[in-house]
Known about the structure:
With 463 residues, the chain is of the alpha/beta class. It folds into three domains: 20-109, NAD(P)-binding Rossmann-like Domain (Rossmann fold), CATH 3.40.50.720; 114-321, UDP-N-acetylmuramoyl-L-alanine:D-glutamate ligase; 330-462, Protein-Tyrosine Phosphatase, Chain A (Alpha-Beta Complex). 34% of the residues lie in helices and 20% in strands. The protein has helices spanning 15-18, 30-41, 56-64, 76-80, 96-103, 111-116, 132-145, 160-166, 178-181, 209-216, 236-243, 292-307, 312-321, 349-357, 380-386, 398-404, 417-427, 449-462; strands spanning 22-26, 45-49, 68-70, 84-87, 108-109, 122-127, 150-154, 171-175, 191-194, 228-232, 250-255, 264-267, 270-273, 280-283, 330-335, 338-342, 363-367, 387-393, 410-414, 433-436. Strand 9 (191-194), helix 10 and strand 10 (228-232) form a beta-alpha-beta unit. Helix 7 (132-145) crosses helix 13 and helix 17 packs across helix 18 (449-462). The longest helix is centred in the middle third of the chain and has 16 residues, at 292-307.
Amino acid sequence: xxxxxxxxxxxxxxxxxxxxxxxxxxxxxxxxxxxxxxxxxxxxxxxxxxxxxxxxxxxxxxxxxxxxxxxxxxxxxxxxxxxxxxxxxxxxxxxxxxxxxxxxxxxxxxxxxxxxxxxxxxxxxxxxxxxxxxxxxxxxxxxxxxxxxxxxxxxxxxxxxxxxxxxxxxxxxxxxxxxxxxxxxxxxxxxxxxxxxxxxxxxxxxxxxxxxxxxxxxxxxxxxxxxxxxxxxxxxxxxxxxxxxxxxxxxxxxxxxxxxxxxxxxxxxxxxxxxxxxxxxxxxxxxxxxxxxxxxxxxxxxxxxxxxxxxxxxxxxxxxxxxxxxxxxxxxxxxxxxxxxxxxxxxxxxxxxxxxxxxxxxxxxxxxxxxxxxxxxxxxxxxxxxxxxxxxxxxxxxxxxxxxxxxxxxxxxxxxxxxxxxxxxxxxxxxxxxxxxxxxxxxxxxxxxxxxxxxxxxxxxxx
Length: 463
């Protein structure tokens, strides 16, 4: 790997300069442990600190690499002696240790920023409030099928840093959250994709949508005229920010509402991508991913593929045979003619809206968990139209009852995935869909949304 990539703007110190330099890493999850491995490989004196407990498998990795670490608290002297700190995205800037680092002028960066210094690979970076995991997975699927030497990282799969340390990819598809973007400064996306901006995680942004939107637009920072910015021309918040913003990259919008001269649009039932000289068309009926929101996701992935000059035949095949990721509108199977879908990754109202919007049958909806100040108003029209019963899965379901008591005849409380699946099964009839799309975080009853989804799938198998 060329460690002098973009030396003028993105310096990677030589091995000699790094020897013995302290790099502290806050958080020992996937990104933190991956960053530790890369830092160790590059000659840093690495110290990992987690305010909570470290999962056993990560602890074993750190021990096998002889990395110094601590859990269940921070030793400030060890952290404040660092030349630089890599912060896991889940740690807010308001955390006391982060405030002290800033006060001491110690740079705090993301794992993506750190790892980006040590690879020459082309960066395809995908962000947005909803759809980014699906779009990143689909983009990776198309590029891999097209014969490109490509890795998938960011908010998904093995950490970017670990892959940079152990692989030699020519391209990376990175799913990037706003939390990651907040700690990214010199990193540059060769192709940046912004899918949409809807209210989410506003507690991290002083409850101001404009702050969250500004964070999302950091995906375009440092881009040049040689780079590309792909965005949704139908998204009001995206367009609002763009009005007062200069973007150096070539802009490639996509829309299902209007014809786009250079980008992608919908012509009757056909996606048209005219981002390059060779146009691409495909019927939306042939897409593996169905529903309006997935037309957007497929357009964004398709534009990336065309920018990278993939063949239309490869694109058509890949967009037609893609299988969605676990916990995102994942088909669990059919019992007595009732379909079960695991959309546990829907941790906000917008994600649940997208899930409901793609349903073509009557729905028994499993909702609930830790409510992040949800406004359920936007769900009401779809609930009235498609939902015959709501099964609440959470410790406190009061707000769900209040939101939907006038729209649905049956709202039932449950306290486990098994109970929710059983109750939903009895409420559904042949031809219906039982949809787990909670619109809430999971940590009242589960470790995380993956745990919630897996428990639901197990429960369905037991029916």
